[in-house]
UniProtKB/TrEMBL annotation:
Full protein name: F-box protein
Top-level taxon of origin: Eukaryota
Cross-referenced Gene3D superfamilies: 1.20.1280.50
Alphabetized InterPro entries for the sequence: AT3G44326-like, F-box-like_dom_sf
Amino acid sequence: MSPSTNTPPHDTVKERGATAFSAVHPDILESHILARLDGPTLASASCASSTLHSLSDQDHLWSTICHSTWPSTSAPRLHSLVSTFPGSGPRSFFANCFPLSTPDPTTAADAAASTLSPPTQEIISAVDIHYKDKLIFTKVQETETVTGWFRCSPFRIDLLDPKDVIPTPAQHPNGDDTCTALNDDLTLSWILIDPQCKQAMNLSSYKPVSVQRHWLSGEVQVRFGSILAVGTKACTKGLVQVGIVVTCGGSEGGEMQVREVSLEVEDMDGMHLNGGESLVILQRALEGQRGNGGDRVEEGRRRYGR
């Protein structure tokens, strides 16, 4: 007998596969499959069928993903705020914060021509640093934006007080070779949130754009960042750079310690922008487009000119 006589038609196989999938109980799909996916994979799965779309849109799945991706989002105030984001709460938050912002001058010009939301009274920073996928630092910090001091002074957010030291499991680099390893081992997320307009974006390149060791002090500066488009005349080149610096020193035992985590906004010539200028630019970026969330590492480094 020919083997082909026992082979069902291709269409029949497809129908049986579809039937088998639809026969799986939704609770099993949700708890044993969907709950194990990361954000991009869950978003892709939701496009496969109407059943998966309905199951994948549940808030608790996306809350769990947000908390595992960015532990800072599990802080009580942030958890509550994320649930109120327009659209679908934590899923909308993830869609805003996982990809990089798009430094498109056209988008910035459109935002500049449109009416911006009223200036927010505060911005929230949600920051997470990992070393070899292990969390070593997480913090949520509010920054008031209504004072004259904020608007006129150079824009800078510091997450650590001068005497604060964050221990890490890493050995302090003692040369250029060990500094290079931090390019792959250290990751940082800096989510900026406008609680008034329920908008958020990630200002970090995810992995370092540069790692430098001071020849005299031995301190290591790990720089992350992003490039934003400008819709104002404050910067003639139409772009600004958001610089995030993690400064690390060594302990008596040789372990690396985080001593400074800061964020500043500069024009492309390295001139610091003040709080008022930076707030307008950041607000337009919050209302702008996002990337597709593909290769964030290479995209972040490419945009930063590395």
